[in-house]
Structures are given as structure tokens and as C-alpha cells.
Amino acid sequence: MAADVAALVERCRQGDDLAWERLVRSCQGRVYALAYHYLGGVEQARDLTQEVFVRVYQQLGTYKGDGFMAWLLRITRNLCIDQMRRQRARPPAEDLVAEDNEWALPDTAPDPEQSWLRDGKKRLVYDALRRLNGPSREMILLKEIQGLQLKEIAEMLGVPIGTVKSRSNRARVELARQVIAIDPSYANQAES
Asked: What is the C-alpha separation between 141 and 65, in angstroms, rounded?
């Protein structure tokens, strides 16, 4: 996949619009998932995903050609952190009640997030992940969920690789503790 992405990026740099569309389609799920885990809202994650790809398109000329996915996820992480800072500085105003439309047809398609959350084990891990402190959650997201290499994470966070290793180990232990705190029946499984 990395070779495919590298070829797509090179074609995008040459102005191939179809390559850009394929690149976005192949990467948007990972960007959305990371944004969703940082921001916690479907609409916020969708908006930020669009913002990420606008930024990537604008900065594609500055990409140096080493680890596109790490570069893309670094942009995503930075924009998520900026968004969270803006939210803390300016809390949202009260929501306005939208008028109910009697004639609106219900959407019968399953919501992807709801389908995912219905699966019990995944929901358990998701709930445990939400309970982790920021650095531990970030480490699990980047290493375990997004699959970045330790070196890529170290570069992204600007810390030594040894620090990434120790944070990663602590984060996994803390995640396991949170899973057991939510559902003690997993304590027996951890011992075997």
C-alpha cells in the first residue's frame, strides 16, 4: 500500500486529479478515525477531515517524500489539537432547536459509528480508551490504531524513540487496567 500511496502522491504533484481523488479515498478513513478519536464528534471529525485534505492539497509541494501516511496523520493531529484549543477558548453557544419536518423520510442505512459501537468488545475498548489521559490515548491511537512505527511517532511528537517506547508500554498497561475496571470479567482472561 505504501508504494501505491507514493505513486499516487507523485501523480498528484504532477496535477493528476484522478490520482488526487484516489489518494483521498484511500486515506480518508484513517484521517477521519484519528479526528474522531481526538474530537469525539461525528460532524467535527467530518469537518476536520475535509480541512486536512484541503491543507494537504495546498502543501503537497512541500512534502519531502518520506512517509506520506505519517505526514498526513501529523497534519491531522496538529489540526485536531488546534481545534481542541479553540473549543476550550470559545465554548459552543447553546444549540438551536431545528424545526421537525413531518415529511422527512427516515434514513434507514445503518450509521457507521453506531454499527461499530454495537459490537461489545469494540465498545469496551473504545470506552476504556476514552478514560485514558491525553498522552496515553494519543499513543494508543498513533501506534496501535493508526499503525505508525515508533520512529514516525517519535518524529511526530518530537521526543526520543525510547520515550515513545516507554509511553507506549505504559499506555497499553493503562488501557488494560481501564478495560478491567469497566468489565472485571476480563481480569481472568488477562491472567491466563
From this structure: 23
